[in-house]
């Protein structure tokens, strides 16, 4: 399908242009304004606010609505703040088991994708704009042919489907056309886990681990704290077990080939090649009594295996082993056996992707086989992009061209749309009715927050059109799914389900399968000289978010790279290959070759490089096109996550990876800035006594406010997993602009909150810790006395405020800030000089009306979400009361999945911030400078095994 370079328009000569009088011009202006506002309004159907609807809508006052967003097909509950019909901010739904009130970067950034001007707007036929009626006529014509052949030749391709309504509709479609077939795939899927369950139990089973009940966790190539559909629930479970004041502080072992967030937070981490990790799993099983062959474990690992086995045996019912994507199916089956032997805190449930009739989708390779054999006449792809993200050995683009009728429905006219005869726009999840299930099977409803901005429809409508030739109402389709299960008073049930954002009692029942079988483990093979491990990107995931500027500019937690990906190599591998940071190398595997810059990563295993998916797009949009390299070109269906026998060659070119900061590795800096304690020493006091503070010419304390509030924040570095949810939440809440790759290359970025990473391990065995750094709001603020126009001032509640209309851009405050948390608008990043298409009008609808959009030449920084403090104060005044304890919650605090960030009033004795300040681990960053920051920290706590016991 050829690309549309220009819309077909009728050109009118300048001479023939009709004149407009003033009355006509005003009437056209009014009509344009009315049509523009029509989209920014509430949908026709009733939607239920999360809190009580006021008697009348107050302009500018936000309402919150519960809905659900998907990642890799699984639902996570959110609360959406909507102002005058415009969704502007997302937060987690505390009632939903997959979000528990927290968010991740993908949920936070979804609201920016809603207003993306590059979204698909209209129907395309062979690359040209076509009327919707022509598309409908084409589908009806195909429908008649399908009825004559009982659906023979029809292939439906979807992502992972957890929607009960969509599964019911697929049942109806396959019932109507019994010779049709349904195929599903997910680019981030772990096929080895499914195959391992088949080996162990003889059936497909999904695992739901409960880290909150685990005292010992062994992660074998697994990353439960890393980005993914179950990150929020796992992170909360991790945090519940990492409280030094409580009994049962957990111990994490992590054996992995490439660095992960779980490895960064582990108490003992070791970098190993994937094959060796599989042998360690076998050795653990044998130590627990499994009748398996001897594991080929190197001698230096045998003591570690002994220690792990000892910890597992000493924690019956509260120890768990997790296997990752790079392990073989046999290793996954062995891990199932280990968990069954340990009575591990893990639930086994049926897959959520089965239709009511028990149908399951076929694999993508079966579709390609049918395409190449000429057995597919109608190919329908819904919400997926296999032309970009299918394994390269399938050669999906060439195979798909063999189908005469190719229909693609998607939010973007992407790489698969380019290959299709017909492309139709898919509604954004915030514009749609639907339902979804989470990892544990809990169902929740999806309700629209806004009418579709463009002429788009939902997957439910397109399936209904394929099945019956008519686009049914998606709301009616969802209601029909749940009507039989809701009881007699359906309307009350429906209202409650919409209000709560979760359907009570819908979680999957845990299975009680027979004892898992041990597989026949193949003999270990000689390791390849060099292999590349692929991972979903922590910002772009599988490429679905490539056109989201917030995520492109969000630093990767472990490398701080933005706007691209790179091959991460162990320093010794880089030395042997003769390459350095920024050198472009060629990666060849089989018949595929890609080029990528080099990053040196001390945490990678020897002989293993890592590369993330999601880049190298050419049909993503103005933001995502041409960024990074496409790792999918190296993937194959047999081993999609590990590329063996990868050949690395130098190209002689350089392309410095863009990073926003460095990892702090100097031991003297780390010990001062990022204190770490063993759990036995967690009660040792860190903070110096007040009497030892150095003298100062500044007042002892800032002036007090009339209402007596004194705002402060405490961040527990022991709980922070570096996920960056707080960074993107701050960006969404405070209208923080994107600067683009060119400005990042100049050393500029605008994030009000950064997450510093400290390596408190050794050169051979790095151990990372994370420290979120917002503005410190110092009581003795160095930025205030140097501002010549008093733009940086202290208010009576302890906030270090920035008065934008006073700022003249001297940047003296930035130079005098020891924490480097101030950001300067060198250009009009949000005011006329936006990067790429970020200045388009649609993006204006996302802006928070309670926060000023800053202009060029203005300094900005974290404000402790002062607009939220003001909102709470107004609410208290209306109720003739004081602001409640912990009533004010900042955006970063709400986003954090581990509750590492606490904010509150120091003058309220029962506040959470006061409880944390009394913790013996409490310390101030650069406290010796006597800046007396209101933002302070708790030291990191680790629980390593005893010296000599497997270390």
Task: Summarize the helices and strands and which ones pair or pack.
Elements: H1 22-39, E1 63-71, E2 74-83, E3 86-92, H2 105-114, E4 124-125, E5 128-129, H3 132-148, E6 154-158, H4 164-176, E7 181-184, H5 191-201, E8 206-209, E9 216-220, H6 231-240, E10 251-256, H7 261-265, E11 268-271, H8 274-287, H9 299-313, E12 319-323, H10 329-342, E13 346-349, H11 364-372, E14 378-382, H12 386-389, H13 396-400, E15 405-410, H14 415-419, E16 422-425, E17 434-437, E18 443-446, H15 459-468, H16 474-483, H17 490-500, E19 531-535, H18 549-552, E20 567-569, H19 571-577, E21 583-589, E22 592-600, E23 608-612, E24 642-643, E25 647-654, H20 667-673, E26 676-678, E27 711-716, H21 725-733, H22 741-745, E28 754-759, E29 768-773, E30 792-794, E31 800-802, H23 812-816, E32 823-824, E33 859-860, H24 866-878, H25 891-895, E34 901-905, H26 912-917, E35 922-923, E36 935-938, E37 940-942
Parallel strand pairs: 6-7, 6-14, 9-10, 9-12, 10-11, 14-15, 15-16, 19-23, 20-22, 26-37, 27-36
Antiparallel strand pairs: 1-2, 2-3, 4-5, 4-16, 8-13, 17-18, 19-24, 21-22, 21-25, 27-34, 28-29, 30-31, 32-33, 35-36
Helix pairs in contact: 2-21, 3-15, 4-15, 5-10, 8-9, 8-10
């Amino acid at each position: 399908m050829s690309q549309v370079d220009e819309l077909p328009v009728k050109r009118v000569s300048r001479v023939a242009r009709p004149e407009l009088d003033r009355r006509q011009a005003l009437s056209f202006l009014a009509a344009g304004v009315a049509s523009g506002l029509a989209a920014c309004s509430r949908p026709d159907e009733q939607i239920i606010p999360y809190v009580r609807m006021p008697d009348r809508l107050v302009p500018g006052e936000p309402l919150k609505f519960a809905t659900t967003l998907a990642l890799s097909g699984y639902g996570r509950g959110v609360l959406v703040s909507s102002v005058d019909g415009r969704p502007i901010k997302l937060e987690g739904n505390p009632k939903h088991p997959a979000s528990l009130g927290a968010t991740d970067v993908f949920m936070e950034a979804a609201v920016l994708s809603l207003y993306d001007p590059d979204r698909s707007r209209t129907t395309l036929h062979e690359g040209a704009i076509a009327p919707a009626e022509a598309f409908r006529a084409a589908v009806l014509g195909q429908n008649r042919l399908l009825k004559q052949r009982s659906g023979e030749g029809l292939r439906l391709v979807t992502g992972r489907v957890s929607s009960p309504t969509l599964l019911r509709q697929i049942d109806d479609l396959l019932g109507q056309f019994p010779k049709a077939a349904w195929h599903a795939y997910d680019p981030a899927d772990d096929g080895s886990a499914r195959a391992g369950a088949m080996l162990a139990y003889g059936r497909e089973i999904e695992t739901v681990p409960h880290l909150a009940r685990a005292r010992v966790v062994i992660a074998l190539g697994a990353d439960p704290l890393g980005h993914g559909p179950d990150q929020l629930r796992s992170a909360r479970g991790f945090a519940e077990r990492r409280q030094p004041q409580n009994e049962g502080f957990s111990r994490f072992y992590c054996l992995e080939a490439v660095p992960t967030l779980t490895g960064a937070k582990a108490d003992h981490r070791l970098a190993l090649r994937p094959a060796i990790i599989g042998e360690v799993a076998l050795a653990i099983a044998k130590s627990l009594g499994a009748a398996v062959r001897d594991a080929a474990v190197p001698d230096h690992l045998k003591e570690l295996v002994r220690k792990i086995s000892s910890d597992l045996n000493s924690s019956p019912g509260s120890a768990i082993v997790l296997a990752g994507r790079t392990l073989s199916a046999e290793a996954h089956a062995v891990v199932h056996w280990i968990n069954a032997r340990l009575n591990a805190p893990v639930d086994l449930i049926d897959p959520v992707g089965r239709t009511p009739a028990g149908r399951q989708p076929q694999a993508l390779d079966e579709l390609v086989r049918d395409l190449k054999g000429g057995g597919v006449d109608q190919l329908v792809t819904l919400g997926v992009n296999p032309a970009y993200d299918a394994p390269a050995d399938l050669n999906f683009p060439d195979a798909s061209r063999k189908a005469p009728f190719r229909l693609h429905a998607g939010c973007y006219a992407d790489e698969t749309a380019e290959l299709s005869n017909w492309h139709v726009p898919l509604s954004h999840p915030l514009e749609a009715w639907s339902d979804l299930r989470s990892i544990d099977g809990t169902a929740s409803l999806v309700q629209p927050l806004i009418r579709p901005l463009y002429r788009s429809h939902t997957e439910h409508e397109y399936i209904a059109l394929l099945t019956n030739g008519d686009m049914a109402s998606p709301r009616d389709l969802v209601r029909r799914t749940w009507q039989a299960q809701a009881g007699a008073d359906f309307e009350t049930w429906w209202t409650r389900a919409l209000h709560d954002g979760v359907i009570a009692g819908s979680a999957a029942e845990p299975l009680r399968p027979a004892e898992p079988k041990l597989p026949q483990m193949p003999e270990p093979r000689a390791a390849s000289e060099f292999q590349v491990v692929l991972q979903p990107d922590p910002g772009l995931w599988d490429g679905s978010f490539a056109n989201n500027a917030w995520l492109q500019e969000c630093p990767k937690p472990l490398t701080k790279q933005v706007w691209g990906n790179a091959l991460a190599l162990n320093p010794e591998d880089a030395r042997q290959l003769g390459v350095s940071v920024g050198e472009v190398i060629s990666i060849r595997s089989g018949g595929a070759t890609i080029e990528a810059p080099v990053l040196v990563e001390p945490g990678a295993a020897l002989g293993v490089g890592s590369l993330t998916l999601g880049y190298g797009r050419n049909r993503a949009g103005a933001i995502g096109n041409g960024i990074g390299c496409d790792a999918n070109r190296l993937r194959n269906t047999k081993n999609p996550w590990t590329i063996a026998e990868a050949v690395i060659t130098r190209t002689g070119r350089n392309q410095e990876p863009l990073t926003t900061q460095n990892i702090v590795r100097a031991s003297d800096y780390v010990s001062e800035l990022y204190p770490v304690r063993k759990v036995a020493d967690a009660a040792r006091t860190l903070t110096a006594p007040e009497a030892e503070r150095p003298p100062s010419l500044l007042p002892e304390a800032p002036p007090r406010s009339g209402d007596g509030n004194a705002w402060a924040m405490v961040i527990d570095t022991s709980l922070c997993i570096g996920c960056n949810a707080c960074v993107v939440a701050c960006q969404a809440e405070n209208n923080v602009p994107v600067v683009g790759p060119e400005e990042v290359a100049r050393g500029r970025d605008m994030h009000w909150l950064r997450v510093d990473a400290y390596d408190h391990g050794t050169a051979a065995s790095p151990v990372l810790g994370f420290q979120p750094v917002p503005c410190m709001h110092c009581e003795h603020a160095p930025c205030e006395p140097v501002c010549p126009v008093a733009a940086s001032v202290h208010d009576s509640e302890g906030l270090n405020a920035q008065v934008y209309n006073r700022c003249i851009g001297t940047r003296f405050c930035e130079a005098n800030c020891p924490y480097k948390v101030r950001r300067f608008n060198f250009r009009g990043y949000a005011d006329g000089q936006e990067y790429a298409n970020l200045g388009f009008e649609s993006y204006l609808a996302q802006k928070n009306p309670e926060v000023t959009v800053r202009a060029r030449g203005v300094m900005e920084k974290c404000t402790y979400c002062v607009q939220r403090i003001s909102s709470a104060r107004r609410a208290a005044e209306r109720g003739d009361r004081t602001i409640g304890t912990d009533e004010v919650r900042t955006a970063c605090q709400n986003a954090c999945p581990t509750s590492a960030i606490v904010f509150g009033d120091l003058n309220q004795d029962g506040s959470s911030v006061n409880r944390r300040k009394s913790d013996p681990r409490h310390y101030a960053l650069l406290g010796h400078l006597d800046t007396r920051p209101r933002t302070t920290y708790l030291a990191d706590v680790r629980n390593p095994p005893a010296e000599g016991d497997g270390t």
